Structures are given as structure tokens and as C-alpha cells.
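Proteins fold reproducibly. Take a sample protein:
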Amino acid sequence: MRDKAQIDAVWLQFQRYAGNRNVGTKFTPNSYSAKWKSGDTTADNYVGINPVGAHCSGASSAYPADGVVPNDQGRGGDCPTDPNKQPAYTAYPWEGLQGAYATAVILDHLGYRDAQGQRAWQLGSNALLRAVQYQQYLQDKFGGEWYDTRRAAWVKHLACKAYGYNCNTASVTHYNPYGGGRNMDWTQWTHQ
């Protein structure tokens, strides 16, 4: 935390992860991301969270992928071609979001802003919020455990606090902001 050059480099990479392809070094997507990444995110301009309005495997696909974390969502399998078909379930997006949300908390606390004055939370048209909303979308459309109230509860709590997002929707019968964190937790105390 005391190495300014290193944290500056983290800030640049975080901006790229959230959607700014003009900063940081290019990411090398994993093999799972191929079918979930947006069509405009080739290997040279890949970002960690799909941009606003994205669809799987390019604009020709009808399957919505706005806010998808391709590296994690793809671990459950390929993106369906039919927008009414449920993808294979995976909890990996919540694991990846824990790292991204913890990074956002740290960078925001340190006062980092991009060239337009945006905080970590605002980058990529609220990329971190859109990633949580995508899991909520899958929950609302297909049911099951997409918006698992036990996993990464602190991420959902921060989404509520940072964005004013309503974490307790009709498809989630019990919202629990306590426990379940892997790298951070108890944000109901740190972010009341």
C-alpha cells in the first residue's frame, strides 16, 4: 500500500477491467470466456466486465451479456444461443466480484479518480453494479441460486450502499448482508 507506483499500476488495470481499453495492459482472457465475452472484446481489447448492451459472442447473438464477467461466467459452460434458455449454473462470478469489489473499496479509499473524475464505482458505466445486476437478472428469469443470498453477501451489501441498488427484490426472499466473504466481509459495519 505504500508503493505509489504499484498502486498506480493497479488503478490502471482496474480501469481496464471495468471497461476502459485505453489504459493498463491488455488482459489475456481464460479459455472459459470465449463464448461469454462481448463481440467487441477481442483478445487485444478484452475487458473484465462486458460493456453496456453486450451480447454473447458478438452483436449477432441475442443472448444478453451486459455486465457478465466472462472469465467467471464461462466456467459454467457456453453461453446459450436461445435467450430464453438458462445457462449452466456457476457461482464463480461471485468469487471474481469479491476481488473486484475489494479492489474498488481500497482504490476509492485512497482517492483514485480517472481523467473524468470517476471513482472506482463509476467506471465502465457502473460495471461493478451491472455485474451484480446480471446475476439478479438470471435469478429473476430462471430462479435457482444465481443470486445466492449466502455467497458474497458483502458484495451485494456494497452494491446497495455504493449505488442505491435494491438488493432485496421479489425473487430474493431473504437478503442477508452478513458473513460469507472470502477476502473481505462485514461491510454492514464498515459501510452502514
